[in-house]
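QA checklist item 7 of 12: single-chain prediction sanity check.
[x] sequence parsed
[x] length recorded as 386
[x] structure emitted
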Amino acid sequence: MKRRKRIYYTAEQRELMWDRYQQGDSLADIARLFDRYHSSIEHIIAETGGIRPPVRKRSSRCLSLSEREEISRGIATDESIREIASGLCRAPSTISREINRNGGYDLYRASRADKVAWERAKRPKRCKLLCNQSLSMIVARKLKAGWSPQQISGWLKREYSAGENFYVSHETIYKTLYIQARGALKKELIQCLRSQRVKRRSKYSSLKGVGRGKIVDAITISERPASVEDRAVPGHWEGDLIAGTHNSYIATLVERHSRYVMLVKVADRKTATVVTALIKQSKKLPNELYKSLTWDRGSELSAHKRFTLATDIKVYFCDPQSPWQRGSNENTNRLLRQYLPKGTNLSDHSQAKLNGIARRLNERPRKTLEYETPAARFNTCVAATA
């Protein structure tokens, strides 16, 4: 087989790679554009952890090539520094430094000076986490505790409201993790992220749309009272099942007002099993804090009438292929995968262990709650009903 000739990608080709990667194309699809294998693209994307390198731009405060050519012409016609500066509307000190750092009057050349200035500007600024070791240690500790970069950023702003030295954006944390050249956070901390990905992926790379079957006598979400929508009133829950290997399942429940999470161990996804488990779980809460349940179109809740009869809790079902109608629950299921990864047997977890996982989630600050914890918000609701 004839060996392919080695290819050196141009700046335009690299821009195309990043455009397609951010649009959600796979590495194999991108590589086919250049008649290459995915490994040819992998190292370019992985070099910066899947984060597109910023395009270098010349600052408007810096001298341009045309201005340097004017300086060169001024030197050739024996103009003074002040005359050259006046013609360019620049400070005389700017012109003086430009000439002195590029060979002086006798050796100054515009094109060479411009090239050297462009190369000299390559001085990557040390990231904030590298300059502030105390901040870096706090971030690392919170990552190990299972906090997301966004939660860490919001909590720092709330906890250290008087000191900007301890402010750091979640994007900075992500970049410091994925771009190891920064050297502030260890690469092993990537495993503390929920996704555990070694490089950032496009949000368009895995779109999903799975339809569900019909539920007899289902009350659709459009019939749900408007008071539930604004989340102002506590006691309205969203629920679903997450699946593991060997037909193992766990029911997840999220309270819409506080984002408080409860996990329920179920033996299987048969409707009798799930409904019985949900009825038992509902008895643990005051009636004022469990008024309705919004569920997906899964057949596991086809016996919803029995649940409502036993608990006096109304059940509403989402429209087909509309998981965003239970957005809090969908988001929580994604967070839970950090503790209950896909491809594992969920039946190995006892109810006590599930309660511990739920507690960890409930004690983590949430951006949507202005970095208050779901546990604190829910306890306030419990106290109000007492």
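[x] summary fact logged: Strands lie at 236-243, 249-255, 261-266, 292-295, 314-317.
[ ] second reviewer sign-off
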